Amino acid sequence: MFKGKGVSVGIGFGTAVVLKEQERKIEKTTVDEPEKEIIRFKDALKQVEEDTQQIVDSATGTEKEIMSAYLMIIQDPTLTVETENAISNLKYNAEYAVDIGFNSVIQLFESMDDEYMAGRARDIADIKNRVLAKLANEETINISKLPENTIIVATELTTSDTAKLDFKNVSGIISEIGGTNSHTSIMARTHAIPAITRVEDATKIFRNGDKIAINGSTGEIFLNPTQEETEQLQKLQKQLKEETEELEKYKKLDTRTKDDYKVELVANIGTPADIESVIKNSAEGVGLFRSEFLYMDNENMPTEEEQFEAYKKVAEAMGDKPVIIRTLDVGGDKEIKYLHLEKEANPFLGYRAIRLCLDNIAIFKIQLRAILRASAFGNLSIMFPMISSIEELREAKKILEECKKELDGENINYNKNIKTGIMIEIPSAALISVGLATECDFFSIGTNDLIQYTVAVERGNEKISKLYTKYHPAVIKLVKLAIDGAHSANIFCGMCGEAASDELYVPLLVGLGLDEFSMNPNSILKTRKRIGELDRKECEKLANEILIMTSAEEVEKRLKEFADK
Question: How far is CA 188 from CA 271, 510, 525, in A?
Fold first, then answer.
């Protein structure tokens, strides 16, 4: 048996089709006529654009949204600036210029501490490889006509590859590279295709024609499964099908415990294209709209109009349902050239998020004006990230009021009662939450960073990853402080970190009094079902037990006992 990271649940049986990356050697040469190389490059890029447009035209639903976003990357002129400069100024051949030019953009996205943005880096790498293939006149494998019950094995199944697939013939996907929020993983989940990523040397281990069974929940892969393994997996397959069918009935229900305690289940999104999944899974709103994508996907500062259109699209799609937009949350760990951010020894404790915005008021105002204008088309709220003091909150609100006065002077419509809230992701904010709550309309706890700052563990550092835990008693006490602080001023407290959809953690959060749970849209129905199985009084008793515990191990053990009862 082999193991990877399961990114799309389900059981798949089939025959392996191994897609190996084309080995390509890029020669560096200088040319006498760079104009001709520019034409070669633009012709190749145009062919890739036309191929992608055909996919968009024939796609529907999630694929259409994803491939439309992918097409926008191709059409963005800032994508090719470095490549064209390398040809025009340095007189490099088109192939080498594409390689170094696109790689500079890829490295920008890969440097960001955000899986969604890292996924865009993989899309750009895919576009680069397709352009290079056109320049070399390479033949490509037709993956739109795969045999029935195919298990695809690839180094990486790119967004454009996935969009060409006939999913009716695919029973599973195995890849060496990929993440939970990659477009391939999203499409696999949309089509209920089990998928497993991060399987080291998969394209060397498996061969064309191998009989394979996979468990997308556990990440387990069985090569030539035994009869016993097959029967066990078939039993699981039947069970998963029944569970999926059962979840459908939760689509039109409120989120309530057995004793009728109501909470809100909302979604985290990164782009307007994610809204389809939000609606499909009947989320009660958007608890976190990460606005960074507008800045990351641009070579220049996104204009007020560009931002307005993006926010408006989400507002209109969600109608009366609430949408919380987090203001710009970037820093020195995310290289955005036009912001001219200096590299910092410890960017996670540095010049970022609200600190950057309060120091660059012109940039901040462009975003706030765009959100305010879009608020006329739906139920939008504004959330400020990385608040550590009441002074920061007051300064942010003061700038927001200035934007409102500007729009009033220009006779531009907006929601004059738009709500403002803050992220509780720094321990100091949780500790002074009673005071902060009197000056805003809601809290949203960002557990990913709150854990990092509380236990002094960088969440991406694998050497000390065991110390990074949501079960740490100090983290739980800070969550409780934030919730109680919010309730002291009669405002709601949500959570948009990964803990909000953790099945073990949800009963604790219900017991602590959390009002809103924000998560990946695909976790909504499962979490609604779980909350419906809980009794609030039992959860409160559990929370009181855990609040006096002194170790993460003890907390996790008790939560597992509660889940198993």
Answer: 19, 31, 18
